[in-house]
Fold each of these.
Amino acid sequence: MSIVTVQLGQCGNQIGFEVFDALNTDSHCPQGLCSKRENEAYQASCKERFFSEEENGVPIARAVLVDMEPKVTSQTLSKAAQSGRWKYGQHSCFCQKQGSGNNWAYGYSVHGPRHEEAIMNLIQKEVEKCDSLSGFFIIMSMAGGTGSGLGAFVTQNLQDQYSNSLKMNQIIWPYGTGEVIVQNYNSVLTLSHLYRSSDALLVHENDALHKICAKLMNIKQISFSDINQVLAHQLGSVFQPTYSVEGSCHYRRNPLGGFKDPALYTSWLEPIHAVNVWKTQRAFSKYEKSAALVSNSQFLLKPLDTIVGKAWNMFASKAYIHQYTKFGIEEEDFLDSFALLEQVVASYCNL
Amino acid sequence: MTQSVVVQVGQCGNQIGCCFWDLALREHAAVNQKGIYDEAISSFFRNVDTRVVGDGGSISKGKICSLKARAVLIDMEEGVVNEILQGPLRDVFDSKQLITDISGSGNNWAVGHKVFGSLYQEQILEKLRKSAEHCDCLQCFFIIHSMGGGTGSGLGTFLLKVLEDEFPEVYRFVTSIYPSGEDDVITSPYNSILAMKELNEHADCVLPIDNQSLFDIISKIDLMVNSGKLGTTVKPKSLVTSSAGAVKKRHQKPFDAMNNIVANLLLNLTSSARFEGSLNMDLNEISMNLVPFPQLHYLVSSLTPLYTLADVNIPTRRLDQMFSDAFSKDHQLIRADPKHSLYLACALMVRGNVQVSDLRRNIERLKPSLQFVSWNQEGWKTSLCSVPPVGHSHSLLALANNTCVKPTFMELKERFMRLYRKKAHLHHYLQIEGMEESCFMEAVSSLSGLVEEYNQLDATKSMPVEDLPRLSIAV
């Protein structure tokens, strides 16, 4: 079963590249630490999930690249092509000339409707290439305008059009200390909209990734490239094929299936179902053993609470609101979003 | 990728504009080694096949044939524009994109705004439309002018209203040179205050710059070079303050060094939009992040480095020094005291081999000494552009929306009132059709309103930062 990735905005596209690169490198890694047959089964499964085959043997990522200005997507496309090991589809990219200006309202209310047809068509084409679709993996940041606003819009559309397929959003939580001044507004609006249309939100905080680079990896001058690679490594180890119930040599057909149960709103799970363990014999990339943990816990409560708090403070002074109302997001929309997120915070608190 | 059009108005505007185009050509020449007309260059230049007569000569791709600046040059006397057209940059300008007159505005805002405004409105519109047509996706108008004179101040601000009406979706970024206290134009306070009203109402973003600051910067550099304080590490005729090494050689005129600083400001402002980087910042993001309320759109700029350092492989300490410099008064392009005033928002636009960890480290370091408004305690907007400016390994442009501009405006108002109380030179203005005393009163009132908004924000400075009660919902 295949996953179609939609990468949105500068962050989404930069990360998307690293993820596909990590997946590709891993599947071609010689040290399998398992039998040849197993390795081949692993490779085949990975390929089917994330890549489609090209005539001359270079795998093409099952991805759609979206950005409202061209610099990043052209860089991403050429970096992939230059690697020689894999590439993006020639026509998989949708891009415009003028970005979203860090404005969620612009991404959601202007770019969304304007380019809905074109973007959904591209996604449709990618879906048609799959024998069987497991779901969508949408990579976006929350702080900017395109990833956040257009990302929310596209996810909503995917919910409408492909209600039976899973939608998992990889969202990037910005650094606490500004990358974008209106990042709290953009984040609040994004989260409240995604809660209504996404099935699972996989969250990575820039601060956390930064700490990993600094403390665990001892990188002196940390670049976004380093951060994205850490993220890609984590994601890769989660997404790579694991054994299905039938035992070894049969890889799980639906990689996203396990995520459907731990929904975003709490439901009391019996201990036996609380942890899903996926195993595989085959090593990931250069590591003999690795473990990846995906959890739904109160861990995100504090960052969420912080972002809502800051956004609320700013909202009370009405700062920057005129930039949003200009494009159709009114104070009421903000209030709705705040209300929804306060409910989520309360729910996690009550666990 | 988007395009921008520069509209340079008046003597000051055109002289700065000229420096800008010179430096822009040099920057693109350094980056674009193969001479291919790419999207970065197209942001400010058109590619024209000069053999084709008329309008059909535009080439959108391939090798560079002849570059034409996306500019409109306006001046009500011919001296400056003529000099440009006879100088080494003459081929860069499209001779059809000029509007000139012979008599000048006599340092009178009313002449520039009312007389020449109505006289040239049609022509102005026509040239602007032409420029816009040549753009695939026009994002921004950059207006360069001075506030103290007649043409730049009067006609320059008349333009703003025209742009707002004709191109409402295109950003209007204004670079305004404010007169210093010892300005030799007696009526400069009148002109400036009258112009301020227009800036308040019709500009998206204003970068106020004062001549005194530019002069101080140049003096300091000269002092350092001549005293040999930094030894051989400071190259005389450095690339920021002079045009040595420029694509087109011009002999140095007195204001050139100062104008080059402003030109560099504009280049750095647009670098992250033109060139790639790990965290891009487009021009529409400047307004979005730095303008929390429509009227408060005056940004204090500071630029570093202002001179070239000899060593290319600059270790970390020097990099951090760059950040410290950006927050020192010596590098500001307007005299103001942001550290003792309130920050509403701050943008750091970095160029060169600088990574996110360097940015974060320096923000953490500088934050404690800066006061941010309560609802924007982490009000930083950052960008990383991989392409450094010519001759440097990295650079930093800091744009701050800070209440420290208030004293500057209040001082301007003071100078205005000193003249106005005596009705000095007023008749020059009132004799112009359409000008009445009420125009002056409205302008002062507009400025007072602006100052009052800054006052209200300043009042929050001493209050403790408390979190407001959150929305309570029924669970």
Amino acid sequence: MEFRLEAHRIVSISLGKIYSARGQRGGLKLHKNLLVSLVLRSARRVYLGEPGGECGLPPRPRDPPPPDCERLRRGGYRPLGSEAAARGRVECPAESPRKRSAVERGQAAGSPGKKPRREAEPSPPQEDMETGNVASLISIFGSSFSGLLGKERGAAEASEPGQVCCEQPVLRSLNPWSTAIVAF
Amino acid sequence: MTFTSPQKIVLRVLYLKTNKNWSDIISTVEFNHTGELLATGDKGGRVVIFQREPESKNEPYNQGEYNVYSTFQSHEPEFDYLKSLEIEEKINKIKWLPQQNAAHSLLSTNDKTIKLWKVTERDKRPEGYNLKDEEGKLKDLSTVTSLQVPVLKPMDLMVEVTPRRIFANGHTYHVNSISVNSDCETYMSADDLRINLWHLAITDRSFNIVDIKPANMEDLTEVITASEFHPHHCNLFVYSSSKGSLRLCDMRASALCDKHSKLFEEPEDPSNRSFFSEIISSVSDVKFSHSGRYMLTRDYLTVKVWDLNMETKPIETYQVHDYLRSKLCSLYENDCIFDKFECAWNGSDSVIMTGAYNNFFRMFDRNTKRDVTLEASRESSKPRAILKPRRVCVGGKRRKDDISVDSLDFTKKILHTAWHPTENIIAIAATNNLYIFQDKVNSEMH
């Protein structure tokens, strides 16, 4: 539980950093934002109780998802926890960081309807379009976050912390950006 | 400099430059190859060069002090209209070229543009022109009755700095390091994802020698954090990554050195795993030893010495401030965990130095395994003051003058340090103050 609280706090702090990085003089600092997104990913994993977040911890039991997510599930989307559990893969932190992205890619690739690269890092605005940045951020946040920093797309409000919902196409129609930085 | 006991380290202040503006925050410090000149760059895009005064028999106590030699504006803020981004004028790195004639040359870089500057002295001027008078105004020709040969007369020393080359448009990402090759003809510049090789005389093109940008930016997992040419082998260079690895590359092997010749990395200690393990393993600086046999790296909590012949782990690891390991979350929150500390070798490669917080800097003697913590502060800035070793206490017995971890001032950080190439003289940049310390007891290298 303490881990989850700390993870929650770290997620909030990380989102705040990514948000404030956009207005920084000199442009986006790729190195710093990469590190922040790595921390965000670790914290998110712990917060969601995913295997690999804490070595050996089983996935958290899921509450019944809200109606939005029912719609998504009919579209072939599966909640994070169950998919990972189904795969039966437990990723220990003892593994070298280099292996982690390969494992994650494996996990992500198996889930239909999701972006293939879940552990994506924020793209530098220097080379990608604004929408590309947002897409990266969405794929980082995956399905449980509402902290969306892009202007074109609406932010998603998570109905419950940790609840699985909000596939990428759905986000456009949801709450505007101004109402959510962190939903928890 | 051997550390037989802490009392033997006697450092005195030679120069202290104080500035109060944000733009005066020193962002890089570099001695030239003889140690006669010391260059500093700041956030305002300025470069200040200090010159060591020759030792005088009349005033033996003032021997070898550094005074301002020249100041110039190297970079100005620019605006990239295409991307709507401001380009900071902050000087990220300065590197001196080996001196080949009476002039000195240095490279300075901000995030995007590298510039070659030539520093020359003028101490004579011609007098006795036929066509113009002393002020330069044209003479009335009817008053000229005879011809004279202009004569060179001494004048007050004037130091002139002129931009000789501007190496622009080579980098999409932020330049973090530059390094002059031992061939004295080429140099490299590294940004987050690419390293370019330039010829010092050619500005309109460069060769890309390392490119780690993935085809899909969402696959990005590591960036280049620092790079340096080998001091003797002009074909070898090293670059460090945000994942804590070092890659030694050989330019003879292929034109594009994406594939390393050697990969130096240490497996992570699972017992130290935390949310911030990746951040603290990111290498912020890499420096070859003067001998070329070793490399020194700095990550957030340690400095490590690597032997070029052993890729599996460093041969030495020194804890800079391990008491911060339990405070990583707070340091993440206040952004201190992203601070990039540099490291330095002394001339004989026997002592390594790096900065820390609270204006502390640390030195480690590789032979005796002793280390010392010193402070660059106002109290120690009085001329000929002797630096007293400091101690951070982490609970337990607390001695007088110890600082507790919770009292450390994290806004006072020493990121940039430099060591004279042959003598025990160090330059410490403490935010916007420059301290130069000299070992009074042993001014020659041991």
